[in-house]
Amino acid sequence: MEAIVLAGGFGTRLRQVVPDQPKPMAPIAGRPFLEILLDSLASKGFNRIVLSLGFMAEKITTHFGSNYHGMQITYVIEDKPLGTGGAVRLAMEQCENDHTFVFNGDTFLDLETDAVEKLWQLNHKPIIVGREVSDTARYGRLVTAPNRVIGFVEKGTSGPGMINAGCYVLNNQQLDGFPLNQPFSLETDFLNKAVNQTPFDLFVTEGQFIDIGIPEDFARAQIELL
Asked: Shortest CA distance to 140 belongs to which of 158, 154, 160, 159?
C-alpha cells in the first residue's frame, strides 16, 4: 500500500506555540508529530509514502531521508501553495499503484487500514473516511446515505454527528481533470461536486482521531499520543 501525506501547510493557527517548525514536525511528547504518524502507517503495512511539502520542506526532508522504518519516502515540494487539491494532484504524479490513501499531516487517525483496503478491492470506488464526534462545529458534517457520502455541510453546526476525517482512498487518475501546479481545494472544488456525480463509498472509522492544528488539541495530543 502507498499513501500521500499532506504536510505542506503553513500552520498559522499553531504558529504561536510552534514558531520554528513546519506544523507536522511540531513536538508531541518530545517527538515530531510526523514521526508518530509515519510510525503508525509503517505498522499498518504501508511500504511507500509520498510526502507533499511546502513550508520549511527541508526540515522534513533532512529528518526522514529516503527511507523510514522500511517505507520508501518520496517528496513532492510545492513551488507555490497549491491547496489540498493541487497538492494531491501533484503528488499523484509520483504514485505507483492504481489507488492511494490520502492522509493529513497534522491529524492522527488510527485507521482500520485493512478493512478500508478490502472495501476498495471490493468496489473500486473512491472512499471518504468518516468519524463520529461529539461536536461537529469545528469540522463540518458529512451528508450520508447507506454506505455512501452524498454531500457536505459547512463548519458551524454544533452537536454530535459524522465528520470528514480528512482521509480518502482515491483512484490515481481521479484528479486528472485539474491542471498540474494550479491551486484548488480538494474538499470545495472537487469533493463537493464529485459526490453528486460519482458514487463515493463511506468508511466509518472508530480509531483514535486527533487534529493537532489548533493549540487546544495540540496540548491534548501531548497526553493522548504519549
From this structure: 154
Q: What is the CA radius of gyration of the chain?
A: 16
- Which are the contacts of 124, defined by CB distance < 8 A and separation ≥ 6? 99, 171
Contact 140, 157 (CB under 8 A): yes
- Per-residue pLDDT, 60: 96
User: What single-letter DSSP state applies at residue 69?
Assistant: T
- The grid cell for 57 is 520542506
pTM to 2 decimal places: 0.94
Q: What's the pLDDT score for residue 174? A: 96
Q: Are 162 and 132 spatial neighbours (Cβ–Cβ below 8 Å)? A: yes
Q: Measuring CA to CA, how many Å separate 99 from each of 114, 124, 156, 192?
A: 14, 9, 32, 20
List Cβ neighbours of 43 (8 Å cut-off, separation of 6 or more).
Answer: none
Q: Of 14, 33, 168, 37, which Cα lies nearest the Cα of 91?
A: 168
User: What's the mean pLDDT in 23-38?
Assistant: 93
Position 12 scores a pLDDT of 63
52 and 7 Cβ atoms separated by less than 8 Å: yes
> Does position 14 have pLDDT exceeding 80, yes or no?
no
